[in-house]
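Deliverable D2.4 — example input (structure tokens):
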């Protein structure tokens, strides 16, 4: 798009001065916030502190398309041919199936993680930058790309070095990883972030519904609220850790927020420029000089024609002779071991006993240290923590996987665990991303919800006439360490005596749904405020004082007195008023 803008300028902008004016016009036309997210210098392409401490990168910091949005906002009712400002209508549109996938992902995240506030326009912005909306919407009826969309192999030659993690299952490469699909997930990230967005029982990174839903969950982890600019920046940087990438995605996000339209599948406009084109990732205009301090990015250009064409299309050019004399032995480039390559094993870094009540956050966190064979700590290594087994315990934020980089002491600290409702043992496995070394398992325990104190919420006497009904119901409040104890299991029993906790066979009783007598109630639970209100009590014809005992998980106990006595009779006073 920026390149198309450049092609339009070639007819009348032959001088550097005119090109510079065009650059200024292009920058001025972008969305609000350009001062915060405008074009940066090459120095700004370094990883940001916020993202370096996060989960790494969904794409492995793979190349991306750098075309800028059109100068004019999308025409809501596009016509064929050029639209407002000289842009093609399809240039501003999103292919129908791709657009549907983004909107369905937004709806799913609104229910699963309402606090994230994910807009579908953010998925559209990332999808535009990563794959040109699945290469212009070249997908089948189920949303799967007609051809696989693969980034270059991440072999450290101008890109990140990520050795194979999936045995080539997703990218067909058993030596190095490659970003896969319309949202460009690397296999090691897809392994835990993948989702089934179209309900076919599979998690396919080449399917736009699966990939869009996975991208939504990825952007919504860490309790990020994407309506807050700081969290939005962090989420985008975690997708591809580059300030220039952040700026570009923000521009497309603001562009799509102004409105867009649907175009047929396969009719979307393909981007022209990529960040690994051998130039600064910022698109340039013919005749303009490169920004001062910009550094060309190495790496292959995508989809070059096999036979170079002469300018104007008049035949082919003659290949240039090699610059290296024949017979000169080639020297393989020296490979510097990465920190990950030096890791020999993982060690526990002093993790305390991990125990929490159901529904609570674990007070302690898992700490793992990456070490060499000699026991030396290794910094800047990504450690993945995965909750395994049948459990609903998660990390805070609702995810079952978290990836954390080791600090200067070689230690990675996992996010806090959030206990689910399933009690028992939970296993968290720590592994090194990008290296095959034995994992390290941590055991955590989820105990049932408990209370240590029970008190009545009222002090009214509980009395009843024989064969009558108690006027007041018994209500108690449960606490644990002074805090509300919600969801705690409780049992209520009308006991024989203070020393005999067996159920009484006479005196007050409860009724079941069929009206039958019950003197023990099980399966009770306190509500969100720690309150428990028992059903109505009834009395048989036995008079006297009786005991109701309530017990909870955790050992809290409360005994309440119940009195069954005949009503006293007295003659009314002659001077009693009607109100008395």
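Example output (designed residues):
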């Amino acid at each position: 798009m920026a390149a198309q803008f450049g092609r339009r300028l070639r007819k009348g902008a032959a001088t550097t001065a005119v090109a510079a004016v065009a650059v200024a016009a292009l920058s001025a036309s972008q969305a609000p916030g350009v001062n915060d997210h405008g074009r940066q210098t090459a120095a700004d392409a370094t990883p940001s502190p916020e993202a370096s401490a996060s989960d790494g990168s969904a794409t492995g910091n793979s190349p991306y398309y750098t075309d800028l949005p059109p100068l004019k906002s999308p025409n809501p009712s596009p016509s064929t041919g050029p639209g407002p400002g000289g842009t093609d209508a399809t240039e501003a549109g999103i292919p129908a199936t791709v657009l549907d996938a983004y909107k369905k992902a937004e709806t799913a995240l609104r229910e699963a993680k309402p606090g994230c506030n994910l807009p579908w326009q953010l998925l559209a912005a990332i999808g535009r930058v990563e794959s040109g909306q699945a290469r212009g919407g070249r997908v089948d009826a189920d949303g799967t790309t007609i051809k696989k969309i693969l980034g270059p192999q991440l072999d450290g030659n101008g890109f990140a070095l990520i050795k194979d993690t999936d045995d080539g299952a997703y990218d067909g490469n058993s030596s190095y990883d490659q970003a896969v699909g319309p949202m460009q997930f690397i296999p090691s990230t897809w392994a835990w972030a993948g989702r089934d967005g179209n309900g076919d029982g599979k998690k396919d990174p080449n399917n736009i519904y699966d990939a869009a839903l996975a991208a939504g969950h990825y952007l919504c982890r860490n309790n990020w609220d994407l309506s807050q600019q700081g969290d939005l920046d962090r989420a985008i940087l975690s997708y591809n850790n580059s300030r220039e990438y952040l700026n570009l995605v923000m521009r497309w996000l603001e562009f799509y927020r102004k409105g867009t339209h649907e175009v047929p599948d396969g009719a979307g406009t393909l981007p022209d420029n990529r960040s690994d084109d051998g130039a600064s990732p910022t698109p340039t205009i013919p005749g303009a000089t490169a920004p001062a301090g910009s550094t060309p990015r190495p790496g292959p250009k995508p989809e070059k024609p096999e036979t170079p064409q002469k300018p104007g299309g008049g035949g082919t050019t003659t290949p240039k002779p090699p610059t290296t004399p024949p017979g000169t032995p080639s020297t393989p480039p020296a490979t510097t071991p990465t920190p990950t390559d030096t890791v020999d094993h993982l060690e526990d870094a002093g993790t305390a006993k991990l125990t929490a009540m159901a529904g609570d956050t674990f007070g302690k966190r898992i700490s793992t240290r990456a070490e060499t064979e000699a026991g030396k700590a290794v910094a800047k290594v990504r450690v993945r923590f995965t909750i395994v087994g049948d459990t609903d315990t998660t990390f805070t934020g609702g995810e079952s996987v978290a990836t954390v980089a080791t600090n200067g002491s070689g230690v990675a600290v996992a996010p806090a665990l959030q206990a689910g409702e399933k009690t028992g043992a939970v296993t968290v496995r720590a592994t090194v991303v990008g290296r095959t070394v034995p994992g390290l398992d941590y055991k955590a325990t989820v105990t049932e919800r408990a209370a240590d104190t029970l008190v009545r919420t009222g002090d009214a006497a509980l009395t009843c006439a024989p064969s009558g009904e108690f006027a007041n119901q018994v209500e108690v409040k449960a606490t644990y360490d002074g805090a509300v104890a919600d969801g705690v299991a409780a049992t209520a029993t009308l006991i024989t005596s203070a020393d005999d906790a067996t159920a009484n066979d006479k005196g007050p009783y409860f009724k079941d749904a069929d009206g039958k007598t019950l003197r023990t109630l099980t399966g009770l639970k306190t509500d969100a405020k720690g309150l428990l209100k028992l059903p109505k009590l009834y009395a048989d014809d036995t008079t006297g004082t009786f005991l109701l005992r309530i017990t909870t998980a955790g050992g809290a106990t409360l005994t309440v007195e119940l009195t069954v006595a005949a009503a006293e009779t007295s003659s009314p006073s002659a001077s009693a008023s009607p109100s008395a």
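The CA atoms of residues 253 and 358 lie 40 Å apart.
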